[in-house]
């Protein structure tokens, strides 16, 4: 009797996790006109997961408008924005934030007549206390109290992380510009975002707070957060970002590593203004 021939193992058809998947944020052919002015003119780029990506360009290049289009502040004239493969083009700001994509603003937007801790407590989504009946019915009131205690603990942890817990009972209107930037970032991160758009977070911040804020960004990136940073300080961009996107006249002029960008003649001519 002949020996049975062992069949060769079947090749696995399972895809490797993450293979062929697109980056968390993909912007394609984004365009925005205001009357006869084109602020963003066919911009396309992507942001890889777990990176700190810089978005630079001269004043009027379209950076802030691009941020506004991504986060739902403005609706694009055309083009698409995808977040984790989902088309979020034109969704409202709160629906985009609920999906894990949040932003900070160049001018901090705290509620000045509320304390730092109270500002923090407003940030988390899905609070049961926002529903009227949960707040007044005895059987549901306990859920509200329990969640508020949990959120308060998380808020304190975030304030400690940014080293502003000593300001918890201070009115936000009394904070310095740098302290407000720290509060705004702490508040944004309390929503457990996956991707954070930072619009000039270091503007008006003294060197000590600037270093502290950058340290926090790097620590959070190592934990898995993804950042897209608009910043005019080229030293900050080139020393901290793995990837840099350059916008000029509403379009993406160039992309690459900091070394590639500083060596790009088009970028030097259009933006950096001479030898680097």
UniProtKB/TrEMBL annotation:
Record domain ABC transporter: where: 25-274
GO biological process: amino acid transport
Residue numbers spanned by region Disordered: 1-23
Annotated Acidic residues bias: 8-22
Coiled coil segments of this chain: none
CC per GO annotation: plasma membrane
A molecular-function term among this protein's GO annotations: ATP hydrolysis activity
Lineage top rank: taxon: Archaea
SUPFAM superfamilies reported in the protein's UniProt record: P-loop containing nucleoside triphosphate hydrolases
Pfam families for this protein: ABC_tran (PF00005), BCA_ABC_TP_C (PF12399)
UniProtKB keywords: Amino-acid transport, ATP-binding, Nucleotide-binding, Transport
Family: Belongs to the ABC transporter superfamily.
Functional description taken from the UniProt entry: Probable component of a branched-chain amino-acid transport system.
Name this polypeptide is given: Probable branched-chain amino acid transport ATP-binding protein LivG
């Amino acid at each position: 009797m002949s020996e049975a021939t062992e069949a060769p193992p079947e090749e696995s058809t399972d895809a490797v996790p993450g293979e062929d998947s697109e980056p968390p944020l993909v912007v394609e052919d984004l365009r925005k006109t205001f009357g006869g002015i084109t602020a963003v003119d066919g911009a396309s780029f992507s942001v890889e997961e777990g990176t700190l990506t810089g978005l630079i360009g001269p004043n009027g290049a379209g950076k802030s408008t691009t941020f506004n289009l991504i986060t739902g502040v403005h609706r694009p004239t055309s083009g698409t924005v995808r977040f984790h493969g989902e088309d979020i083009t034109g969704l409202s700001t709160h629906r985009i934030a609920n999906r894990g994509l949040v932003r900070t603003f160049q001018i901090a937007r705290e509620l000045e007549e509320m304390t730092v801790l109270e500002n923090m407590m407003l940030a988390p989504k899905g609070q049961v206390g926002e529903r009227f009946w949960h707040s007044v019915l005895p059987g549901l009131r306990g859920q509200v109290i329990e969640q508020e205690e949990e959120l308060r603990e998380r808020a304190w942890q975030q304030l400690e992380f940014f080293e502003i817990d000593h300001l918890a009972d201070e009115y936000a209107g009394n904070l310095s510009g740098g302290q407000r930037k720290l509060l705004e970032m702490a508040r944004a991160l309390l929503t457990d975002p996956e991707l954070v758009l930072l619009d000039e977070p270091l503007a008006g911040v003294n060197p000590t707070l600037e270093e502290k804020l950058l340290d926090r960004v790097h620590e959070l990136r190592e934990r898995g957060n993804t950042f897209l940073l608009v910043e005019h300080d080229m030293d900050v961009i080139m020393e901290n970002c793995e990837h840099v996107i350059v916008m000029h006249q509403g379009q993406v002029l160039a992309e690459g590593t900091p070394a590639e960008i500083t060596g790009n003649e088009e970028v030097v001519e259009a933006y950096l203004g001479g030898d680097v």
